[in-house]
Amino acid sequence: MELTLPPKVTPRAFARLAEINAATGDVKALRVAVEGGGCSGFQYDIRLDDPAPDDLVLEGDGQKVLVDSVSLPFLQNAVIDYTEELIGARFVVENPNATSSCGCGTSFSI
Fold first, then answer.
1. In what order do the strands lie in the sheet with 79-85?
2. How many CB atoms lie within 10 A of CB 43?
3. Helix, strand or coil for residue 92?
4. What pLDDT, in 10s, does the model give residues 80-99?
5. Phi–psi pair at 36, nearest 5 degrees
6. Are 72 and 6 in contact (CB under 8 A)?
7. What domains lie within the chain, and their CATH numbers?
8. 3-state DSSP call for residue 53?
9. How many distinct helices (H) and strands (E) make up the chain?
10. What whole-number distance in Å separates Cα of residue 34 and Cα of residue 110?
11. Does the first or last residue of the chain, that is N or C, have fewer Cβ atoms within 10 Å of its Cβ?
């Protein structure tokens, strides 16, 4: 898979990350990674983390979102967002590369 367009992060996702960092008093970046597993073959791992040397760093609103070099091809042209719904609030990935996904939205196939 050749990288054509890097992922994008919405202002809402950067704003929520800023709120989390302000509440904890510890400035961390949001890591979005792809790993094998889940009911569809791949799953997202979204967590607070520190940057690594090979990360793509996406910056906005004074915040950082990290994507490692292995996950990057799977996330090309994806949109990282934050959503609040009746079932809960969470960071989500809208991934145009996914050919199918599970109902919870954390597992997908390419």
1. 8-9, 79-85, 88-94
2. 19
3. strand
4. 999 998 888 999 999 888 76
5. -70, 145
6. yes
7. 8-100 (2.60.300.12)
8. coil
9. 1, 9
10. 12
11. N
The pLDDT of residue 108 is 47
Helix (H) or strand (E) holding 93: strand 88-94
SS3 of 72, please?
helix
Rounded Cα distance, 18 and 82, in Å: 12
Bridge partners of 92, per DSSP, are 81
Place of tokens 């890591």: 31
pTM of the model: 0.83
* Better-scored residue on pLDDT, 4 or 61: 61
